[in-house]
Amino acid sequence: MKAIVMMKGKPGAHAFDLPKPKLSRPDEVLVRVKEAGVDGTDYNMIKHNLQDTAEGRNEIVMGHEMVGVVEDVGRSVTSVAPGDTVVMTVRRGCGICHPCLHNQSDMCMTGLYTERGIHKLDGFFTEFVVDREQYVVKVPADLVKLAIFTEPLSIAEKGIEQIRVIQSRLPWTCEHPDHTFSSPDWGRCKTALVVGAGPLGILASALLRLAEVYTFVADIVPEDSPKVHLVKQMGANYLDARGKKPKEIVDFCCTPTGNLDIIFEASGAASTAIELISYMSRSSIYVMTGIPREELFLQVDAAQLVRQIVRYNQVVVGSVNSNRSHFEAALKDISAINSRFGGLLKEMITHRFKLRDSNRIFTVTDPQHIKTLIEVEPW
Ligand SMILES: [Zn+2]
Ligand SMILES: [Zn+2]
Which of 2, 374, 8, 373 is closest to 199 using CA atoms? Predict the structure, then answer.
């Protein structure tokens, strides 16, 4: 079967032939891949030559976002059956630490996990994949054509979950007792800044807007960019950060309420990410999800920074990967995003390729580009 791989000592993405995988355990599921999504991690792997192959292997199949249809199941599988549409989670736990043993490998304590398409396990830019039932999540029939957004949305779900869990330390911060972070109405009377209008920034903004958070999205693209169109479609405000200092960006976000409750970093721009800490509001939270790759050294007034974080009870938290519960939350919210913000999700897909296009997928320089989809097999 066809696949797109990265190979040791051979930069770029390459077409490759692999044997079709077979069921080898009673709890396994064989899935025919229909669509695979390309995201920032894939581009970074290509750009920085990160061929993280398994021991004894010369290549790794790329891709960690997929939707497919079950072809066959082992005899102990009960949650899915042939013909079901499914998505698969990405990380496989270390099998040692308690978070991994309790279905939270996204919080692995040993670092000995693997990740499909990223870290020592073959990914989803191929025709068939096999995995254990616990990593396979069934997609409701009405969401089949949007399910490719499950994995990226699950990353945003985890980030927002972190915000809500940590900020449950606060009582309500406005005059409404039902606006605590633990309430279903948590987003009201709150302001957020999302840094980066790439797919993750847009999906995080969609979740914030679903919760009625007053949302600003900052990026360095002009007002007529399709990304800005999507930001406005959700009722979020776009902030063109070109030539602006982080303080100006935060001041602008604070104009409506005087407070910036949430910063969601989804750009991976290390300098802005660090500088923004200095302008956090009191008792606020800042979640970082972008992963910068280049080295960057900055001079900071460390005493001022520590003083401020302590005195203002501030929280800066990192959030990576996601587990099955975030995939399930994402499937619920895909439906909500689709009915509330119209064609937002479909409009995010700006470029479509086939598995045979391995030499073209990572060369897109179109300024209109938001997200690339690989159509592995027609629906
Ligand atoms: Zn672990
Ligand atoms: Zn309120």
Answer: 373
